[in-house]
Amino acid sequence: MINPAPHAMQPRPPQTVEMFSSGPPHRPYVDVAYLEAEQESSYSVDGTSDFIAQLRERAARMGCDGVVLGGVTNAPDAVASITADINASRKGITATCVMYLPEAVAQSPAPAAPAAAPPPAAIAPAQ
Hints:
This protein has 127 residues and is α+β, with helices and mostly antiparallel strands. The protein is built from 3 helices and 4 strands, in the order E-E-H-E-H-E-H. It has helices spanning 48-62, 78-83, 103-106, and strands spanning 18-20, 29-38, 66-76, 89-100. It has a 4-stranded mixed beta sheet.
C-alpha cells in the first residue's frame, strides 16, 4: 500500500478495472498500491499480455478502480544462472493501483490563496 484509499476497497470483476498504458487517468485519483507481475523463472513463457491480465486480476481482488502500467523489469534469475550456467533474467511489469476520488471531493474548489497585504500607507513629509 502507498496511500490510504479515499473510500472502502471492495473486490470487483476484473473487466471493470480500467487499464492505463500511456498515462494516468484524467479524473482525480489517489495512488493506493504498488503492483508487480513477474515471470516465475526465466524459463517461463509468460509475456506482456499475461502480466497485464495478472495485474488486472490482482487489482480487482483489491478493489482498485484502475491500474496505471509502469515499466518493464528484468530481475536476475539466480537459480537458472547456477543450474544452467547462463545469465538469465525474469521479465516483469510494475504498475500502480489507483482509486478515484468521490465526486464531491473531486469537484470541491481549491482553497483560495491568501489575500495580499495592502501596500503601506504613504507618509507625508514633515513641514
